Recover the amino acids of this structure.
């Protein structure tokens, strides 16, 4: 019983440097979509970063209300396919059990290999990092995790045209970029939240 209870309980750590802002190494403070202040004790949010060649290409934080709205914008078809991909390629229970039963608070244990592929962060040129926070703390569950570019591309392929459009709107709106860069960023749609 104890172990089951532990699995359902979040472990909490200080937000590690890799999940702070790239340039100033500070906490993310506001939701990218609604601007909600995130550092109140009870406010939950996610952080996503895209890393390429050692540099942060894109990073943002988003409150849970906006994450939920984003999910609802995904077509039913896309959502089902992405869910199937998760089910087929990743065992949530094992991961949570392994990490939480070892009580690891070491961020590297969570992000050092791809959630879906057997690839080490050290051999990847490009990957995404996802984290789940509450106020100025990070919650450990299936989050945080790392997704390799190969897996990102596989999931992108599963999205319907409608969902791609919605996500393009998101990147266009929040990352005002020149057209050539926009094409690059558009391939980093937030589908792993
Ligand atoms: Zn928001």
């Amino acid at each position: 019983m104890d172990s089951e209870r532990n699995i359902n309980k979040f472990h909490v750590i200080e937000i590690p440097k890799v999940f702070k802002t790239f340039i100033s190494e500070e906490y993310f403070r506001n939701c990218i979509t609604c601007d909600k202040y995130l550092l109140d004790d009870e406010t939950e949010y996610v952080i996503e970063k895209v890393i390429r060649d050692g540099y942060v290409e894109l990073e943002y934080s988003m409150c849970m209300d906006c994450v939920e709205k984003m999910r609802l914008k995904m077509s039913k078809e896309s959502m089902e396919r992405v869910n199937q991909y998760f089910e087929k390629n990743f065992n949530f229970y094992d991961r949570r059990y392994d990490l939480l039963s070892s009580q690891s608070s070491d961020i590297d244990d969570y992000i050092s290999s791809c959630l879906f592929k057997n690839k080490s962060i050290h051999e990847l040129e490009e990957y995404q990092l996802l984290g789940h926070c509450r106020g100025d703390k990070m919650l450990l569950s299936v989050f945080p995790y790392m997704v390799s570019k190969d897996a990102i591309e596989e999931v992108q392929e599963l999205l319907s045209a409608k969902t791609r459009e919605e996500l393009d709107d998101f990147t266009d709106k929040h990352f005002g970029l020149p057209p050539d860069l926009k094409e690059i960023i558009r391939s980093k749609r937030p589908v792993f939240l």
